[in-house]
Design goal:
The protein contains 11 helices and 10 strands. With about 260 residues, the protein is α/β, with parallel strands linked by helices. It folds into 2 domains: about 190 residues, 2-enoyl-CoA Hydratase, Chain A, domain 1 (Alpha-Beta Complex), CATH 3.90.226.10; about 45 residues. The radius of gyration is 19 Å and the shape is globular.
Length: about 260
């Protein structure tokens, strides 16, 4: 059952839920209410069996999310900064660790917290008008929702430092070159291309899809041995009904009929 939100629009079709951050008058800036509702929406994506993948995007042609709602920062006491960062990191970690693919469709400015939100998704597509950036240094701040870590993982230390230390925006074309986004489309084709890509993924085993996400995430977790995690996850796949069906379909030269159940 889908919930009605104040700051988000949601729709579900063909197993794909689209979550649109809906504050176009504020360039979809992340305030406390947006973050709280986004957390609820992500939990619903992870929990609802009929939802097998998701897209996060922004309302209007100008912005995916143009950053945090800076006006709210004035009401946060100095000692509250760490708690604010932890809240954002916890929410974005839930996106990153969801067992179902969550993809960002970046339709305009993805700055500050918006860039961090996009990077928390499993991968990103962008329209030609998209602009990425971490301009927090201009406010005497640093990225606090995981940006220093995820940007470095995605584009490398030197490029990440340049982007964060200058605060300069990165075009969609450059983002594609440096590995920040997977595909760049015309603005009117962004959501269609994203859905088409996810529909392709949904033809695969949901068990295997979830294990790929977990194994790749383990690569970046300093507290885990990614190779050992791969062995464990491979073993779980090997014991699954989807593995039996996939191998049978291959040998019988037919299309596999994988389970539609949510991955464990």
């Amino acid at each position: 059952m889908q919930v009605t939100y104040e700051t988000l629009l949601t729709e579900t079709a063909n197993g794909i839920r689209t979550v649109t951050i809906n504050r176009p008058d504020k360039l979809n800036a992340l305030n406390k209410k947006v973050l709280e509702e986004l957390d609820q929406a992500v939990q619903a994506i992870c929990d609802e069996p009929d939802v097998r993948a998701a897209i996060i995007t922004g309302a209007g042609p100008k912005a995916f999310v143009a950053g945090a709602d800076i006006a709210e920062f004035t009401a946060v006491p100095a000692e509250g900064g760490a708690l604010l960062a932890k809240m954002g990191q916890d929410i974005f970690s839930r996106i990153e660790n969801c067992t179902k693919p969550i993809v960002a469709a970046v339709n305009g400015y993805a700055l500050g917290g918006g860039c961090e939100l996009a990077m928390a998704c499993h991968f990103r597509l962008a329209s030609e008008t998209a602009r990425f950036g971490q301009p927090e240094v201009n406010l005497g701040l640093i990225p606090g929702y995981g940006g220093t870590q995820r940007l470095t993982m995605l584009v490398g230390r030197g490029r990440a430092l340049e982007i964060m230390l200058t605060g300069n925006p990165v075009s969609a074309a450059e983002a594609r070159v440096i590995g920040l986004v997977n595909h760049v489309t015309a603005p009117g084709e962004l959501l269609g291309t994203t859905r088409k890509l996810l529909l392709d993924i949904l033809q695969k085993s949901p068990v295997a899809v979830s294990k790929v996400i977990a194994a790749v995430n383990a690569c970046f977790d300093r507290g885990r041995d990614g190779y050992a995690e791969e062995i464990r996850l491979f073993g779980e796949c090997f014991a699954s009904g989807d593995k039996k069906e996939g191998i049978a379909a291959f040998l019988e030269k037919r299309k596999p009929d994988f389970s539609k159940e949510p991955a464990p």
